[in-house]
Amino acid sequence: MTSTDPSRPHPAWLPPEAFRAIGAHHTLVYGDGTLVDTVYDEVGRARARYGGTVRRLSGQATEPERAGADETPADLVLALAPTGSPPAGGALPAEVGSELGAEVAGLGPEGFALARRGGVTVLLAAAPAGLLYGLFHLVRLGPAAFGADRPVEAHRPALRLRLVSHWDNLDVHPVMGQVERGYAGGSIFWRDGAPAGDPERIRAYARLLAACGMNAMTVNNVNVHGTATRLLTDRLDDVAAIADLVRPYGIRVHLSVNFAAPVSLGELPTADPLDERVRAWWAKAAGRLYEAIPDFGGFMVKADSEGQPGPYRYRRDHADGANMLADALAPFGGVVHWRAFVYNHRQDWRDRSTDRARAAYDHFTPLDGRFRDNVILQVKHGPIDFQVREPVSPVLTAMPNTRLALEVQATQEYTGQQRHVCYLGPYWSEVLRFAPWGPGRPTVASLVAGPADDGDGAPAGNGGGASAGGGGLVVVSNVGDDHYWTGHPLAQANLYAVGRLAWAPDLDPVAVLDEWIDLTFPASATGDPDSEPGAGSDGEPGIGSDGELGTEPDSGSDRKPDADRETLRGTLHALMDDSWRTYERYTAPLGVGFMVAPGHHYGPDVDGYEYSRWGTYHFADRDGVGVDRTRASGTGFTGQYPQPWSDRYESLADCPDNLLLFFHHVPYRHVLRSGATVVQHIYDTHFAGVDQVARMRRRWDRIGGSGLVDAALHARVADRLAEQQRCAEEWRDQVNTYFLRKSGVPDAHGRRIH
Ligand code: GCW
To answer: Keyword Hydrolase, does the record have it (predicted)?
Structure first.
């Protein structure tokens, strides 16, 4: 049952019921170390609830630890096999053990292999992290892990560094608040300059991250101001305290740093990266960090970007800056995430020769090959800024000698700010699967995965050296101290999905959504102690713990759990599967981007950025709309892509419709590949998008009062859907009216445009 205790964080995808299958079995855990302790504790909690047993055999201990009924033969074995050879004895069937052991040897520090034979499920990993990820894999499998025999399956993450970037401020920023672009309450780490004071929430967060596959996080905003600079010095203990909380779940802490920290802290007159005093200052800072946090991950840096300090002030380039910090971290195995989000944010809108889309490529590609091996260049997925539709950034294709990370945004700055349902899994999946050199050639996922490693057990992503591989994936967090973590309860799915896609970019995002639904809204079987009134949470109705629609929760015999589940699953898919495209339909059309209210970026303002300094224009006039980024007549941005995309984007006939206005300025009556004119497409999609939201709302209303989901959660989503509809109508009316007035072309269907 989904907890509704408003004073505690929502369990998200780890409610106790998710552990039902594991908890009902007899488990043997082999191995030592913090993460194995975590596995043992997790199984221990589950078995206490669901009646199984757990024993532990440690490398050192002579006597096994036990919990629950004694001496029951294990039917689940979770074992560390560091050298590929499984532990001898116990319940491990020898033949399965050696088969799995052979697999595990090549799976690296986070991989695991499992099989089920003769009524025993066996999971082996070469290192403790693998055992932890294996446990959460079993959680996802649920009863399927304990049914018929299962052949050997091997799992390892495609991307070794999977990091959540928090734009959390230490001090409350006068404009941005406690969390920059945060739509889920305050920060889980900081409040008014001090630690937020809820260690249990941070632990619970780490657990959720591990369960979806993430392994690192930054704890402060990339815009580093005020007290945040001091996390490097006298506030280091606060960072160490967070690291201690998240370590048991395999999460490493990274820190965003201010490039000018030695100056802003008043310790040096310069932050010149080639100045020996500066280099020594950072080396000392790194030494202090690793003394306090031995597994510290490294630095994230936003330099020479939107007013943040950087190496340009000293006539040095980004490689000089990043390498200086990399050298400070290298002795300890740390990495520098150096952001490629660099552009002129003081552009003159009259100047048509400057194109913000070009900026990252122009700044960084000349530096390819100059970065240290422990520098990761962190590239936003699109060339502009997390718009609802952008092409993939060409920087990712043009730096073969640099470790690259893909940066995506779970916080819905430009996608409805967690008031609108917008499941971004399909978007990220498209980006990860995009093949910049055409079908059959490398994908974005493979570019950020880097060269395949040999599974030699090197520390995940942090070893430095070319063999350390790619830079993985960075996601800007959508989490805050809200009860549901993400403001909109359904936005939890975005965090879940990003972890799963970072682990396995080929996953179908709709299947990932199914996983999230099954875990988050578990079916309570008859006989579940938690589904009895008064047990576990507060007795609010939960999925499957109720009777038929409209009857009292927990009322007994007339349950139809399968039908209920299908109703709920169908409702959630109806709301979420296509929600990203729905959002796209009622907002900025055909890849043109922005048209949002300046500053906070919520709701429509078609010309809000048109005459500003930010470089995000649509150039609509009486004849047409869109940005000419062609080589033939525009900014030449299409030339930053390799073939075949360079030519496809260049060609008016071949450019995909959904990016047409990103690449071309066209007349309103230009006919799209779909057969519609541009202006008619704008009208049609804006009407359709709003209709879709209205249908989503009706669908959600239908399950109100049914007990299929917790009442408070239902109400929260219902409120937000009402706001989504209001806002979508505003978008529709402003955009349609704007283009009717500009173009003078009436709607072919005569619908009402104002
Ligand atoms: O999307 C923009 C946001 C800024 C953010 C910046 C960035 C942290 O509007 O709030 O600053 O991107 O990515 O650095």
So the answer is: yes
Correct CATH for 528-627+665-754 of 3.40.50.2000, 3.90.1330.10, 3.40.50.720, 3.30.70.2660: 3.90.1330.10
Q: Which residue pairs from 95-98 have beta carbons closer than 8 angstroms and sit at least 24 positions apart in sequence?
A: 96/120, 96/122, 97/122, 97/124
Closest to 597 measured CA to CA, from 470, 443, 429, 730: 730
Of 200, 234, 291, 306, the catalytic one is 306
Catalytic residue, candidates 168, 317, 385, 546: 385
- Distance between CA atoms of residues 82 and 33, nearest Å: 12
Backbone phi, then psi, for 475, in 5-degree steps? -120, 135
CB 478 within 8 A of CB 465: no
Our CA angle for 518, 478, 329, nearest 5°, is 115
CA of 153 to the centre of ligand 1 (A): 41
Ligand 1 pocket check for 385: Cβ under 6 Å: yes
β-sheet bridge partners, residue 378 = 339, 405
pLDDT, tens digit, for every residue of 627-651? Answer: 999 999 999 999 999 999 999 999 9
What three-state secondary structure class fits 717? helix
Does the annotation count 385 as an active-site position? yes
162-503: CATH class: alpha beta
User: What would the two tokens of residue 433 be?
Assistant: 């699967």
Q: Whose CA is nearest to atom 3 of ligand 1?
A: 181
- Round to whole Å and give the CA distance between 492 and 484: 8
Give the domain ranges of the chain.
16-155, 162-503, 528-627+665-754
**Segments of the chain scoring below 70 in pLDDT:** 1-4, 59-64, 69-70, 86, 88-92, 452-468, 524-560
For the chain, give me the number of helices (H) and strands (E)?
A: 20, 21
Residues 6+ apart with CB under 8 A from 456: 108
CA distance 224 to 233: 14
Report cis status (omega within 30 of 0) of the bond before 16: no
DSSP string, 49-77: HHS-EEEEE-SS-SSPEEESSSSPPPSEE
How far apart are alpha carbons 257 and 36 in whole angstroms? 32
Does the active-site annotation cover 413?
Answer: yes
Which of the following is catalytic: 304, 413, 546, 564?
413
**pLDDT per residue as tens digits for the range 394-452:** 999 999 999 999 999 999 999 999 999 999 999 999 999 999 999 999 999 999 998 86
Distance 370 CA to ligand 1 centre (A): 26
For 525, counting Cβ atoms within 10 Å of its Cβ (0-12 exposed, 13-18 middle, 19+ buried), the class is middle
Q: Residue 495 corresponds to which tokens in the numbers above? A: 């965090």
Q: How far is the CA of 440 from the centre of ligand 1 (A)?
A: 34
Please tell me the distance between residue 166's alpha carbon and the centre of ligand 1 in angstroms: 12
Choose one of 166, 181, 411 to mutate for the ligand 1 pocket test, by most ligand atoms within 8 angstroms of C-beta: 181
Q: How far is it, in rounded angstroms, from Cα 320 to Cα 261?
A: 16
630 phi, psi to nearest 5 deg: -80, 165
576-592: burial string, b at 16+ Cβ within 10 Å, e else: bbbbbbbbbbbbbbbbb
pLDDT at 61: 52
Cα(59) to ligand 1 centroid in Å equals: 48
Residue with tokens 């809000």: 608
Instruction: Give this prediction's pTM.
Output: 0.93
User: Which residue minimizes the CA distance to atom 1 of ligand 1?
Assistant: 385
The answer to whether domain 16-155 and domain 528-627+665-754 are alike in fold is: no
Under a CB-based contact definition with an 8 Å cutoff, are residues 596 and 602 in contact? yes
| Ligand 1 atom nearest to 601, measured from its CA | 9
What's the start-to-end Cα distance of the chain, in Å?
47
Token pair, residue 466, equals 């070319």
